[in-house]
Specification:
492 residues; 11 helices; Outer membrane efflux proteins (OEP); alpha+beta; four-stranded antiparallel beta sheet
Length: 492
């Protein structure tokens, strides 16, 4: 008997091992096919990598950086070379001899020009400061967009989790109604009890089905919003990692005044506005340099070529009449002289280029006397832009202060409602438990049962909404406070 039991146990163990191997093999295969749930950290990282608005802000920052580098390069001297080769017909000036000629002429000019600005009212230095502030502002604007994107993804992710909880509550509500509907259907078919109870429960079941459909639509809409931020194709089967919301519902440790004070110090939005203000101040100095003379050094090195240029060499002498005469004894005698003979030959291109080199250098002063009040108006326009920057900064501070105060009030309201709904859920759950027992035993009617059930379900929905609303408001306040969301540590 013991041997039989031992063999039986051994066979059972072997079967169990085989079953476990098959189970884990199927499970592992299923895990490969299943899509891993999306964590908040993954969503934020994906959004920072793929979001088109953030990429566009980055391109704007790169353009600002190039402008800044160019302003520093403007301090260097300019050095330009020029070269031309052409043909002239008709009457023209020979560039080799500067004489008028009337023939076909091939000409060429080669030059090198150097220019260095020595002083222009510190225009270049002030422009460097202006563009550096503009570049710094662009960096802060990219960081602002990055912070906004993290907040948007976080809030949208929490909205998805909220809608998932609401869908779960709606399905649980539908399941409870379905169980009662099946029980009442049996009584209805047996013609026991009030037949109106069954039809009323059918109506309640249809109402609960509508709630499930609405909850599913709200969930899908929230998913679409998230995938749009991630710049990814929507996936209705994507899963999302849940978080323990209840443990995070704690009293917020900062006042609205403290949050606003931290926002002024830490938020990239204010830093960007301040850099824009500094850039506007430097722009006024750049415009004022139009009143000041500009002093620069210049130098030139040039040479030329002419096809008409020739080189003449001595070939000998000959006696020729000069056209004059002398009179001796009333007799005129012509006057002769020795004349040197020359033979002309063309000068090649490179010889002319080397032989015709000439240079010049000096100091140039450009004094603005009257330019249609352009400098004055430029200064006036830049002053207006400065005032606009000041107003923009003040308006941003005012908007953020109001937004922080509103978010803080809504956070406190959600925190208070959470505790109220927690007690309400506990009370309505106990009330429903009693009414369900009474209804199942025929002591109470369906009106009392449905009322009690709806009270409990609505209280649970209100509690879930209050939880997530509080968490959303806290995230908004943390964004205003300028604290970095440690999503990798908290949610991955």
């Amino acid at each position: 008997m013991q041997l039989f039991e031992h063999r039986h146990i051994k066979i059972m163990i072997n079967k169990s091992i085989v079953s476990l191997c098959v189970f884990f093999g199927v499970y592992a295969f299923g895990q490969d096919k299943m899509q891993a749930p999306l964590t908040l950290g993954y969503c934020i990282e994906t959004a920072l990598k793929n979001n088109l608005d953030l990429k566009k802000s980055g391109l704007g920052m790169e353009s600002s950086h190039i402008n800044y580098k160019q302003s520093k390069a403007d301090l260097l001297p300019t050095l330009n070379a020029n070269y031309n080769l052409g043909v002239s017909n008709g009457r023209s000036i020979d560039p080799y001899t500067n004489d008028y000629i009337d023939q076909k002429l091939t000409f060429s000019n080669v030059g090198l020009n150097l220019n260095l600005t020595v002083f222009n009212g510190f225009k270049l230095l002030n422009r460097i400061r202006q563009r550096r502030y503009s570049f710094n502002a662009s960096e802060m604007e990219v960081e602002e967009r990055r912070q906004n994107l993290i907040l948007e993804v976080t809030l949208t992710y929490l909205q998805i989790l909220n809608n998932k909880d609401l869908l779960r509550l709606a399905k649980s509500r539908l399941e409870t109604t379905k169980e009662q509907l099946e029980r009442l259907k049996s009584l209805y078919e047996e013609e026991v009890g009030n037949p109106a109870d069954y039809t009323d429960m059918q109506g309640q079941y249809a109402l609960d089905m509508t709630s499930v459909v609405n909850a599913e639509n709200n969930l899908e809409e929230a998913k679409l919003n998230l995938f749009q931020l991630l710049n990814m194709d929507s996936d209705s089967n994507a899963g999302f990692t849940a978080m323990d919301v209840t443990d995070q519902v704690k009293e917020y440790p900062y006042s609205s005044e403290e949050v606003f004070s931290m926002a002024l110090e830490n938020l990239a939005t204010f830093k960007a506005k301040e850099f824009r203000l500094d850039a506007a101040k430097s722009a006024i100095k750049v415009a004022r340099s139009g009143y000041v003379p500009e002093i620069s050094l210049f130098g030139q090195l040039n040479t030329n070529y002419s096809s008409a240029a020739q080189l003449f060499t001595e070939t000998g002498t000959s006696v020729v009449e000069t056209g004059g005469f002398v009179t001796v004894n009333d007799t005129d005698y012509p006057v002769f002289e020795n004349e040197t003979q020359f033979a002309g030959s063309d000068i090649n291109y490179m010889d002319q280029i080397k032989n015709n080199v000439y240079s010049s250098f000096g100091v140039a002063v450009n004094i603005p006397l009257l330019n249609g009040f352009q400098s004055k108006n430029n200064v006036a326009l830049e002053k207006i832009k400065l005032e606009e920057s000041k107003i923009d900064l003040q308006n941003t501070k005012l908007e953020f202060k109001n937004a922080i105060q509103q978010a803080y009030l809504k956070m406190e309201s959600a925190f208070g409602r959470y505790h109220i709904y927690s007690e309400q859920v506990h009370a309505f759950e106990e009330s429903f438990r009693i009414n369900e027992i009474r209804f199942n035993n025929g002591v109470s009617n369906i009106v009392e049962y449905i009322t009690s059930k709806n009270n409990m379900d609505n209280a649970r929905i209100n509690l879930s909404n209050a939880e997530y609303e509080y968490l959303l408001r806290v995230r908004v306040l943390e964004y205003y406070r300028g604290s970095q969301i440690l999503y990798e540590k908290e949610y991955n």
